[in-house]
Fold:
Amino acid sequence: MLGYTADKDAYLKRLRRIEGQVRGLQRMVENDEYCIDVLTQISAATKALQAVSLGLLDEHLKHCVAQAVAEGGEVAEEKIAEASAAITRLVRS
Amino acid sequence: MLGYTADKDAYLKRLRRIEGQVRGLQRMVENDEYCIDVLTQISAATKALQAVSLGLLDEHLKHCVAQAVAEGGEVAEEKIAEASAAITRLVRS
Amino acid sequence: MLGYTADKDAYLKRLRRIEGQVRGLQRMVENDEYCIDVLTQISAATKALQAVSLGLLDEHLKHCVAQAVAEGGEVAEEKIAEASAAITRLVRS
Amino acid sequence: MLGYTADKDAYLKRLRRIEGQVRGLQRMVENDEYCIDVLTQISAATKALQAVSLGLLDEHLKHCVAQAVAEGGEVAEEKIAEASAAITRLVRS
Structure:
């Protein structure tokens, strides 16, 4: 079982909302809406995606990483290295 | 005319691709794909949104802000203050 | 005259404070303080640097870019392209 | 023993270098150097701070969080929640 499985519906709901936000951006551009207003909505969609990432990462640490650490040895080291790499990508995106 | 009007189709194409990425994220969660893989795809979608923002901002400076500055006075000051606020939101999202 | 010249003392004061924050980080590491506490202080120093950047960028737009735009032609285009590149670096740092 | 203790000297060296970068920024402002050049150096200092954070976080996961998880129970949950909060601050700074 994955970390996020228990909250799957909530994550799907959030992702559908973000999909709607991106479609909304298309309508704004279609309708020649003011650049700054489009930029404001993009920042909102980016923040929503970021929040999903932080939630998934938290659950990953609690479940997948914790299980691997309990197992110990190379499995644990690899899982932590993998999580650190994901954190780096998230910080730099 | 807005800064991005000349590139409207290109922006719409990029936003439709990002919409597809977000739908792809839903399928990954639907199919219980590994958390790290979902996180990697979210970082890709976030970077794509960020690139759209940077493009719109560049065009906004070239057209809307430049026109206002050429006009001078309060119009110019307001337009630059507005652009700076948008840059701050972008940096902090 | 540069955009920030009028506020030079304020920027120097802020940078000296950030220098002090970084020295403080060294003391924390020297004294084996808890990782999370060190991380919290690094985030504070990073935010302070970011705020200096946003201030300088705002002043740059108001003065250097506005002057170039008033001049028009290639000078204006180069100055806006340069500002956009700086915004991109700031967003991605 | 903290996660970073084994690499303490390396972290101190990096932080001293960042301190030097911030003093360098002061000299640039003192000498009225061009705004964009100052901004470029601030981005470099911000990236250096970020890299220190990512290093500390990786070591924290490997040592402090791993030890707590091996212990299990509330200690583990608290330690992971604390790490997640630090990751959120890092992503949003």
About this structure: The interface with chain B takes residues 92 of chain D (CB under 8 Å).
